[in-house]
Every structure is written in C-alpha cells, then in structure tokens.
TrEMBL record:
SMART domains: MR_MLE. GO terms for molecular function: metal ion binding; O-succinylbenzoate synthase activity; racemase and epimerase activity. InterPro entries: Enolase-like_C_sf, Enolase-like_N, Enolase_C-like, Mandelate_racemase_C, Mandelate_racemase_N_dom, OSBS/NAAAR. Residues 151-243 form the Mandelate racemase/muconate lactonizing enzyme C-terminal domain. This is o-succinylbenzoate synthase. It comes from Microbacterium proteolyticum. Its EC number is 4.2.1.113.
Amino acid sequence: MPLTRAAAPVTLDAVELRVLQIPLVSPFTTSFGTETVREVIVVTAETPDGRGWGEVVTQSEPSYSSEYTQGAWDVLTRFLAPTLLRRRTLAPEDVSGILDGVVGHRMAKAGLELAVIDAALRAEGRGFAQYLGAENDRVPSGVSVGIQRDPRALVDAVGRYLDEGYVRIKIKIKPGRDVDDTAAVRAAFGGIPLQVDANSAYTLQDAELLAELDRFDLLLIEQPLQEDDLVDHATLAKRLSTPVCLDESIVSDKAAADALALGSAAILNIKAGRVGGYLEAVAIHDRAVAAGIPVWCGGMLETGIGRAANAALAALPGFTLPGDISASARFYDRDIVTEPAVLEDGHVRVPTGAGLGVEVDAAALEAFTVRRERITR
Ligand code: SMG
Ligand code: MG
C-alpha cells in the first residue's frame, strides 16, 4: 500500500534536541528491570514554514535494545542531525536514504524522520494518519501490565485496567513469574483477550516450560527468546500452540521478511522506533498483509507526540490486533501535549489535525527538559 501521496520537501534550518525526564505514575517492571522515570529525546525540526515534532524512544539503559538515550544523543548531535542539515532541502521520504551511511541507530533515525514528516505535513495541512494510508478513526486500546509484587497484586492491577475499559491485556513475564501469573489472571477474569511478553528472557531450553502456557489460550507470546534468535524462534514456534509474536527481533523490513520466511513468527509487533521510522513500519505492515500475517502496534511508553503517531499507524487496515496504545494517563500524570490521548469506550482516537494532530504544551516540555541542544547548518 503506497503512501497516499509523498509530502512536499521542506527546508531544514535547525534541529533542536531535548532530553526529557518524565515521572511515571507507577513503576513499570519487565524482565529487564524497573523504570520509574521515562527518559526520552524530543526532536524539533525547524523550517521557514514552522516546526515539526518527533520522539526518540530509547530508554536510559541498553536493555530492550542496544540503543540508549545518551548513545542516541551522541549519534544525533554528531552525525545524524548534521547530515540531514547539510541537505538543506529534503522530502520526508528521503530521510532514511540520506541517513543510510550511519549503521543502525534506528530509534534515533526514526525520531528525526518523524520530526521532518510532521513539519512537512503541517505545512501542507495534511494529517499523518491520512499520509500513512490509515483507514480507521479510532483504534482499540490494549494495555501492557508490568510484573507486580505477586500474582495477587497482578490480578488487582489487571482488574483496574479492565474497569477502565482496556480491551486487551498484556502481562510481562520472566522466568519464575510466568505460569502462575498467567494462571492467576485467567482464573480471575476468564476468557479476556490476554497475551504475554517475555522481553527475550528465555532460551530454547525453556521450550517445555513455555509450552505450559499453551493451556491458557493466549492471543500470543511475545519475544520469548533473544533478538537474534530467529532460527530458535522458528524451532520454538513448532513446539507451541500459542502463536509466537516477535518484537525485539524485527528491526527492519528485511528482518521481518527473514522472520516470515523462516517461520519464526505468526504475528508481528510493529514499533516505528525499533525499525527506523514510520515509513519502514508501513513497509512491514504491507509485507505482513501480503503474507496474511496479523500485526499490532507496540508501544515504548511514548509521550503525546509518539502516542499520536502510533495511533495513526495502528489505524492502517492490517493492524487487526489491539496495540499497546493506552491512554496517556496509564503512564503519565502530565504529558507534553495539550490534549493527551484518552480512553473512550476502550479506544483511542486517531488525531486528524495537520501533521501529528497534537500541539506541544510548551510549559510541560520546558518543565521536563534536562538537556537541550540546537544544531544549525
Ligand atoms: O507503551 O504501553 C507502552 C509499553 C508497552 O510493554 C510495552 N513495551 O517490549 O513491548 C515491549 C515494551 C518495551 C518497553 S519496556 C522495556
Ligand atoms: Mg515487547
């Protein structure tokens, strides 16, 4: 599905980068560890016609991915932003090609590309969802629930999210906190749409244990093995009746092609940051649709900037499973946009205004900024 229409080129005068530290409403624990503050980079693309916004979804430590915030800051300030600025005039669709000389650093590239796309679309008065080829005006909202103190606390947390209206629950698992946690949620809430995310915490040696999850009729198990374990995931997939979904492993459209060819995944989690940008994410969506593979939109605890962009992406027709697109309030008391995403009947609305369709709250942005640099030509 090609983009509805390429965006007009923009003249890039400057790129402003900020590191933000935003407190979470409650700690978020995965197999990697616990986060209490979201540290994220916000990108502003400055053009003569106005500004565009992007978000680099790295975390402060390289545990989910090899990328991390200070590393992204370094590559953005020294290589990526200067390379883009040297071009002066560029179309959003050219950004990834221009940055091709830098290997990896996909989250950093994705944030920069999003800022350029947003600037271009705001100048045209066109919405991001329309640009990507979205077909829905709202998307079903799933919630990712971190590992809690014990299964009873997990049941309490899940119950609160179900009461709020979330239509799908994902629980984080790790060795020692898998079968019992899942059993407790199934016992408490019956046949709710439920899936688990291991964040790479297991090896193929754990296949027998992971097969115990088959009895819970889960929508999927997300990323049980390591990022580069494509062959092991294919082997595991044959052992399980629970569909295997890949997250960390799908770092590009090429990786998605390889995973599908090998039978490593029956379902894909698509995150624009992880794959180098929203345009690459659309390519993966298109590939999955052609292959009959369901996809859903993952989350990286985005601020209102990335959350708006994710809602637009998830409104493409191949996103047939609910994504990790929760209300902003699931993570934040105060967001950096003036109208943070809210839950309405288990759904999040897809913004329709120009560009990302959200306005940055300058005071909130300022309040959370801990580092800032403006890079000019
Ligand atoms: O944004 O709702 C969200 C978070 C969803 O669980 C979530 N993300 O592996 O899918 C994932 C994690 C990655 C971030 S925490 C390590
Ligand atoms: Mg995941």
